[in-house]
Amino acid sequence: MKQQGLVMVLALLILLSLTILGVSAVSSSLSQSKMAVSMQQSGMAFDAAESAIAGVFFESEDEVLLADDTLTDPLSEARQGNVFDPAADTLSCFEDANWTNRQMTSDVLETGSRHVSTGQYQSEPATNSWSRTAFVREQACRGSSNVIGGSNVNCHVFIIRGCGSVESSPTVVANTLSAAVLAPASQ
């Protein structure tokens, strides 16, 4: 009889340890699944932020837009706006008032258009993509004054921040790029 009771206790201990291992495996699997979804959403938000930066360059190189005196590209618009001081200012993805704003939507980039309409970058999952552009300063171009004609051409320096988010995630991913554009010197 003592042996039967011992076998039963041993069987219960084995069953308990198997249950603990099973619960641990399920918990680990759920955690890994959540991490994978989070990484996927962060990757999609980063792609949206990169697309927002590319949209600024697309619009700034659009010859149809540049030839239309009634429209401004993001760099020219930023040049006419507030000056960005990297030591004192922040180029936030959430501040619309002080910087030049553009939206990337699921519509294709079209020549001759300012991309300011609201909409989603992609619908499944719902992803948003937008940019902020700010003018930093005008400076002499390094090493090129003899090549480009001296003091009548300068480098205009801009900061471009691309922002992206997936609506089911509380995280916004941002990427920042500094750009220098050759332009006539201010008088």
Task: Give keywords.
single chain, 187 residues, alpha+beta, 4 helices, 40% helix, elongated
Chain-averaged pLDDT = 86
Low-confidence runs (pLDDT<50, min 5 residues)? none
Q: If you compute it from the alpha carbons, what radius of gyration comes out, rounded to the nearest whole angstrom?
A: 27 Å
User: How many beta strands in the DSSP annotation?
Assistant: 4
User: What is the global morphology?
Assistant: elongated
Number of helices: 4
Order of helices and strands: HHHEEHEE
Structural class: alpha+beta
Q: Roughly how many Å apart are the termini?
A: 105 Å
Strand order of the largest sheet: 1-2-3-4
Largest sheet: 4 strands, antiparallel
Helix content: 40-55%
Strand coverage percent = 15-25%
Pfam family, one: PilX_N
Protein name: Type 4 fimbrial biogenesis protein PilX N-terminal domain-containing protein
Organism: Alteromonas halophila
In short:
The chain is an alpha+beta fold and 187 residues long. Helix content is 40%, strand content 24%.
Describe the structure.
- This protein is an alpha+beta fold and 187 residues long.
- It is 40% helix and 24% strand.
- It is built from 4 helices and 4 strands; from the N terminus they run αααββαββ.
- Strands 1-2-3-4 form a 4-stranded antiparallel β-sheet.
- A hairpin with a 5-residue loop joins strand 3 and strand 4 (172-184).
- The longest helix has 59 residues, at 2-60.
- It is elongated, with a radius of gyration of 27 Å.
- The protein starts with a helix and ends with a strand.
- Pfam families: PilX_N.
- Residues 4-53 form the Type 4 fimbrial biogenesis protein PilX N-terminal domain.
- This is Type 4 fimbrial biogenesis protein PilX N-terminal domain-containing protein.
